[in-house]
Specification:
heterodimer, A: alpha/beta, D-Maltodextrin-Binding Protein, domain 2, 10 helices, B: 5-stranded antiparallel β-sheet, 7 strands
């Protein structure tokens, strides 16, 4: 039996090897063959999900909402001590020092990460900015967003906080953080399709146990999740979804 | 049993007697000191169906000025500011009890009599088709919108006092 393990496409490229290391470790400890699916973007992920390819999913919280509530996916784990936060930054030479300095018509660079956009829009409300009053500049990568902000071609850029922290020191020195979210309640979620409920206890035990054996820290460091994973039950996931719901408008 | 009267804060304050929807009342003291909303954060709480607080995140605890153990088990109206007209909350309980989302700008009262403005959203917690409680999330509001609402709320409050 082979289960497909889909990883949300919003991880940094340098974490790619880490996901393969995790997959190998999970297979060895659970005794279940796992096939890793790493879609390149949100569109490819949606296609894989729509044809029912994913048995296990490391989902971003925005996607997890629909998967749990309408498709019956079972939440069972999340990264420990690792929340999804975002940063709004401007070029160091922009002259802007707070979110309230951004005005209607300002240009903001962003990737296709929906969570980042959603949280970012909420953080811009104190500046009386809405989705319609911003000139959005779509980019493929956070590095591209940083370049546009540094060159002054946008007034601000949205970043996943982890991605901002992964920018080079040189890049960060040419940027200024206007605001960083500190929500501490929203995280990625590991989900299982209900058709693999019988295999779930073995997989959950293997995943939650990573960090307890020699060499495990190499896997977790490669993933950028040094504290590993912690259990997440249905109600904890529902709580997070209710919270996300309040941020939709 | 209702909430105890507030302690008189050291800063100059206005005294008010608030009567809540559960029929209880208490004396509160409101100062002119505003505490800014913490940047980048959300204030999150959950209540049961009767509006009793069952969960408060760290930002909620810090901004309220109360200890977490004072908040858990207390009615959510522990934060009610005397400057807030009842009509500003009109629809809140009706909307969430009907399974809908509610939004509103709210001036909250801290334990020390100071205040903080929020943009509040409340949603029902629906589990297996049944509403089991409510989640409220407060975020940093638009100052423009608050400045527009201050005279509106003051007028509504005056109208309510005149009618009572």
């Amino acid at each position: 039996m082979t289960l497909n393990f889909l990883i949300a496409p919003d991880f940094a490229p340098e974490r790619f090897a880490g996901w393969h290391m995790l997959n190998t470790t999970l297979q060895r400890r659970s005794g279940i063959h796992l096939h890793l699916l790493t879609p390149a973007g949100a569109h490819e992920q949606a296609e894989l999900l729509s044809v029912g390819k994913a048995d296990l999913v490391y989902a971003n919280p925005f996607d997890a909402t629909d998967m749990i509530r309408t498709q019956g996916y079972i939440p069972f784990a999340r990264p420990a001590k690792r929340y999804d936060e975002m940063v709004i930054a401007t070029g160091a030479e922009s002259g802007l020092s707070s979110v309230e300095d951004l005005k209607a018509g300002c240009r903001i660079a962003l990737t296709e990460n929906k969570d980042v956009k959603l949280i970012g829009l909420r953080l811009l409300e104190p500046a009386d900015l809405t989705e319609a009053t911003i000139r959005w500049v779509p980019v493929d990568t956070y590095q591209a967003a940083a370049r546009l902000a540094i060159k002054g071609e946008v007034e601000a850029a949205f970043f996943l906080a982890d991605a901002y922290a992964s920018l080079t020191r040189m890049s960060r020195s040419q940027l200024r953080v206007l605001v960083e979210s500190a929500i501490s309640d929203i995280s990625h979620v590991v989900l299982a399709h209900p058709r693999v409920a019988a295999e779930l206890p073995g997989i959950a035990k293997a995943l939650l146990g990573i960090g307890q054996q020699p060499g495990d820290s190499d896997v977790l460091d490669a993933l950028g999740l040094p504290s590993g994973f912690e259990p997440m039950n249905q109600e904890e996931a529902e709580f997070m979804i209710d919270l996300m719901d309040t941020l939709l408008d | 049993m209702g909430l105890p009267d507030m302690a008189l804060p050291p800063a100059p304050s206005k005294e008010a007697r608030l009567t809540y929807t559960d029929g209880t009342s208490r004396t509160v003291y409101a100062t002119d000191l505003e505490v800014p909303f913490p940047e980048g954060r959300l204030i999150v709480s959950r209540t049961d169906l009767a509006g009793i607080i069952t969960h408060a995140n760290d930002a909620f605890v810090e901004m309220s000025g109360y200890a977490r153990e004072d908040l858990i088990g207390a009615p959510h109206h522990i934060l009610r500011h005397p400057d807030m007209p009842k009509i500003a909350f009109k629809g809140l309980w009706d909307d969430v009890a009907a399974g809908k989302k509610w939004h509103g700008y709210v001036k909250n009262l801290r334990k020390d009599g100071a205040y903080y403005w929020v943009y509040a959203t409340a949603v029902p917690n629906i589990r297996n088709g049944v509403i089991v409680g409510y989640t409220s999330v407060r975020r940093k509001p638009s100052r423009t919108r608050i400045n527009e609402l201050i005279p509106v709320y003051a007028q509504w409050l005056a109208d309510e006092k005149a009618a009572s």
